[in-house]
Amino acid sequence: MSATESAQQNDSGLAAKDPPKRRRALLIVTVVFVLAALAWFLLWEFVFSTRENTDNAYVGGNQVGISAQVPGTVVAVLTDDTQHVDAGQVLVKLDATDADVRLRQARSALALAVRQVRGQTDSASGADAAVAARKIDLSKAEADLKRHLPLVAAQAESPEIVQHLRDAVAAAQAALDAAQAQAQSAHAAIAGTDTANNPAVQQARANFRAAWVAAQRNTIVAPVSGYVAQRSVQLGNSVTPGQPLMSVIPLHNLWVDANFKENQLGHIRIGQPATITTDLYGGKVEYHGKVIGLGAGTGSVFSLLPAQNATGNWIKVVQRVPVRIALDDKELDQHPLRVGLSADVTVDISQDQGKVLAAGPAQPAAETSVYDNIASQADAEADKVIAANLGASGTSR
């Protein structure tokens, strides 16, 4: 057999074996694709379809603006950007000269009002004594007339004398009437109340209270604990009420506003758990939170110039709705965040039977108690002024 014939036989043998190999290879490829499709289906069914994800999310928090409540000149700035302040800590001081003058005037006016009411009370007591004296005079005149009337009937007394006695009784009655009118006038200013609660004293007390509060407001304090940002106030500035001076940002109670596309909101509900990562820690730190509310409208609706879709020149754009997610305070303490950081949010939507809209009002978003004692302290100072000027007639009526 020649070499050519031998080669041809080898080729024909290989050709006879190729179809089974190709079928086996095709079967393997088919199995791989089927398994991959099955794996993708299972992954979608049990993983991807139970969550919604977005990287259009940002950390939010309360930005507490600090402003003056009274006009004045800045004499001290006691904090700066990035510094931590506690609730009630003094941030800025204003020149208190004018406020002190007004407070002294109000203090003097309150003391004067108390003394004037005391004088009115003493005048009323004097008027009561005068009424008692006039009553005695009238009784004496009536007794004299009664004694002389039998003598006139017996012609033992002159009619002129009796007439004089009658005139004396009339004069005593007129004097009594005048004294009673004066007593009523004196009591009208103090009737129904003691000195401390007299309307004149209460008016002066209110003016003193307002002056005392205004004097205290020359010291500007932090309403909440947090970190100072955006300080614009400088020493010597003349500030007006409402003028922004700085901000205090609490980094403890933060949240994330995740802007989901409108076609992602179908299964998002209040109370669903969420996981959040940020670039601040390279995505290695995972925060856990829950959905607490969905926005009432898309971002474009609340923009300065909202789109007018009725003009005809309109292109449909997928809108986004903010979904607010509360964060765990303990995790924030361990790994602090900053307001405005971008975040990646994944919401577990496997349980989608919850509410879309909040059922009722929730707890306050923020509150402070640093101003609660100002009114009580003002009342205590007013009480001291009143007590110092009452004397022994403080409870007289």
TrEMBL record:
Residues 97-217 form the Multidrug export protein EmrA/FarA alpha-helical hairpin domain. Pfam families: Beta-barrel_AAEA, HH_EMRA. Its main location: other. The chain crosses the membrane at residues 25-44. It comes from the Bacteria. InterPro entries: AaeA-lik-b-barrel, EmrA/FarA_HH, MFP. Residues 255-347 form the p-hydroxybenzoic acid efflux pump subunit AaeA-like beta-barrel domain. Keywords: Coiled coil, Membrane, Transmembrane, Transmembrane helix. It is found in: Cell envelope. Residues 162-189 form a coiled coil. PANTHER family: MEMBRANE FUSION SUBUNIT OF EMRAB-TOLC MULTIDRUG EFFLUX PUMP (PTHR30386), MULTIDRUG EXPORT PROTEIN EMRA-RELATED (PTHR30386:SF19). This is Efflux RND transporter periplasmic adaptor subunit. It comes from Rhodanobacter hydrolyticus.
